[in-house]
Design a protein that fits this description.
The protein is α+β, with helices and mostly antiparallel strands. The protein has three domains: 124 residues, DnaJ domain (Helix Hairpins), CATH 1.10.287; 95 residues, Sandwich (HSP40/DNAj peptide-binding domain), CATH 2.60.260; 102 residues, HSP40/DNAj peptide-binding domain (Sandwich), CATH 2.60.260.20. Helices cover 33% and strands 22% of the residues. It is built from twelve helices and 13 strands. A four-stranded mixed sheet has the order 8-9-13-12. Strands 1-7-6 form a three-stranded mixed sheet. A two-stranded antiparallel ribbon has the order 2-5. A hairpin with a 5-residue loop joins strand 8 and strand 9. The longest helix has 17 residues. It is rod-shaped. The termini are far apart.
């Protein structure tokens, strides 16, 4: 089946006699309009952007353009294959040269140029790849950005607007790093240019310090048609006045109690990340004793439900006493039967 003819002048919207400056100006204008970064998910515009690159690859290269111009559209349609057409128009080609070209085209079928069948038929995909200094596709680099959030945001999840710098595909050369067989002056042959932008990102509930949140496709663009890298948010959860996050998602709270409260027991209001709850402190509670409020910690990332809140008791002793309080403590001391230091004797 014959390859479909590509009208490169029509694709760029220029006349056949357009000079190099007009070709470059038309490509830059249309590349900005159809660039994949500005039209994510639009397959039709992605295809148009690919056609633009192909047209510019040919019309910005004097040798390719001359070869393309020598092939009239009507002449092309009268042949069932572009290669046959080019062989018919090629004058004085030696048999050895034709055999070598056929060998190269066979190898080109396996490698491909990344352009249309028409392009490969006209120039040979392997030779076109060499002319464009095509290399193995390389995935774009991942980027990392530090993000600080409050503990309450880690509990509920949040959205943040961050300033992120990344490399973006150079619209001047379409990411190939070359213009008319010379290094692109805009990107200096790199195929990408640095750009800082504002990006709104979603941080899921349950993250903690050290968590990495992956934002797919927001890293650096790939080279030579490779996939775009990812953006990683390195999360730090800021310290809290009285909650202390644990590595497993539990939350630790230190609860002060007076000696009478610990000795007699008490129902006390305890703060949690989701609001205050009543907690029963049994009589005889000791300092550093741990209690557990189930499901009151951070959300679990890979499991359903929440981790727990740990409540650690700290018995506080008054630093100053009234005369009445001092007398009462003396009475308690005389009545004390247990020796807390018995195990040390």
């Amino acid at each position: 089946m014959a390859a479909k003819y590509q009208d490169y002048y029509r694709i760029l919207g220029i006349e056949r006699g357009a000079d190099e400056t007009e070709v470059k100006r038309a490509f830059r204008r249309l590349a900005r309009e159809y660039h994949p970064d500005a039209n994510k998910g639009n397959k039709l515009l992605e295809a148009k952007f690919k056609d633009l690159n192909e047209a510019y690859e040919v019309l910005s290269d004097p040798e390719k353009r001359a070869r393309y111009d020598s092939l009239q559209h009507d002449t092309f349609r009268n042949f069932t294959n572009v290669r046959e057409s080019m062989r018919a128009n090629a004058e004085g080609a030696a048999a050895a040269a034709r055999a070598q070209a056929a060998h190269e085209e066979k190898a080109a079928d396996a490698t491909g140029s990344g352009f249309s069948e028409f392009f490969d038929s006209l120039f040979g995909s392997k030779r076109a790849a060499f002319n464009r200094q095509k290399k193995t596709q390389q995935r774009g680099d991942d980027r990392q950005v530090p993000v600080e959030i409050q503990l309450g945001e880690a509990f509920t999840g949040t959205r943040k607007t961050i300033s992120a710098e990344r490399e973006e595909t150079c619209v001047a050369c379409g990411g190939f790093g070359q213009q008319a067989n010379a290094p692109c002056k805009v990107c200096r042959g790199q195929g990408t240019v640095s750009h800082r932008r504002q990006l709104e990102v979603k941080i899921p509930a349950g993250v903690r310090t050290g968590s990495r949140v992956r934002i797919a496709g927001e890293g650096n663009p790939g080279r030579h048609g490779g996939d775009v890298g990812d953006l990683y948010l390195n999360v730090t959860v800021k310290g809290h006045a009285y909650f202390e996050p644990q590595e497993n998602g539990d939350i630790l709270l230190e609860l002060p109690l007076t000696p009478p409260e610990a000795a007699l027991g008490i129902d006390v209001q305890v703060p949690t990340l989701s609001g205050r709850v009543m907690m029963k402190i049994p009589a005889g509670t000791q300092s550093n004793q741990l209690f557990r409020l189930r499901g009151r910690g951070l959300p679990r990332i890979k499991e359903k439900g929440n981790a727990d809140q740990l409540v650690k008791v700290r018995i506080t002793v008054p630093q100053t006493l009234t005369l009445e309080e001092r007398d009462l403590y003396l009475q308690l001391g005389r009545m004390q039967r247990d020796n807390p230091r018995r195990s040390l004797i």
